[in-house]
Amino acid sequence: MALIFCNECGSEISDKAVNCIKCGNPMRTATSVIDEVLDFKSIDKKYAEEFQKFHDSKGEYKGKKNGYAFFFQLFWFFAKGCWATGLAYVIIIVLFTIIFELLNVGGYGVNEGIYRFIGLGLSVHGMIRANYILYNKKVLNKNIWL
């Protein structure tokens, strides 16, 4: 650990400090703090490589598709601890079910194919976003909804 000087007040502080202890001036950017905090040792190797790609790309890399999330969407998200996303999918499914049942009561006769189309769309969305959502949960400790 080396000592550096704050460029705002001139106080000596640690080079590891995020803010100056005297004046509160930010000493490092948030990304440099994240670089040091990331530790993929506790994460399954299959996901660790993917998470490293997310981190290195600074938001450019969108991730591989996750087949497990496609076939077992709600179970996968809840099992991985991504409860916010799982809950969002449940809410969407319930809302669409209510809307279509109300339309059926009115005699409009909503086709069963619409249910399948929306279910397939949600599954594809979950498959595409699953690894990124898991990265946010496990590495950045953020619950994102979709």
Largest sheet: 2 strands, antiparallel
Task: Give the tally of structural domains.
Answer: 2
Strand content: under 5%
Count of DSSP helices? Answer: 6
Our Rg estimate from Cα atoms comes to 22 Å
Class based on secondary structure composition and strand pairing: mainly alpha
Mean residue pLDDT: 81
Provide the succession of SSEs: EEHHHHHH
> Low-confidence stretches at least 5 residues in length (pLDDT < 50)?
30-34
Strand order of the largest sheet: 1-2
Helical residues, percent:
55-70%
| Strand segment tally | 2
What form results from the Cα inertia axes?
elongated
Terminal Cα span: 41 Å
Give the SSE layout.
Blueprint: E1 3-5, E2 12-14, H1 30-37, H2 45-57, H3 67-71, H4 73-79, H5 83-105, H6 112-138
What would you note in describing this structure?
The chain has 146 residues and is mainly alpha-helical. It has helices at residues 30-37, 45-57, 67-71, 73-79, 83-105, 112-138; strands at residues 3-5, 12-14. The protein has two domains: 1-37, no CATH class; 40-138, no CATH class. It has six helices and two strands; from the N terminus they run ββαααααα. β1 and β2 (12-14) form a beta hairpin. α5 packs antiparallel against α6. The model is unreliable at 30-34 (pLDDT under 50).
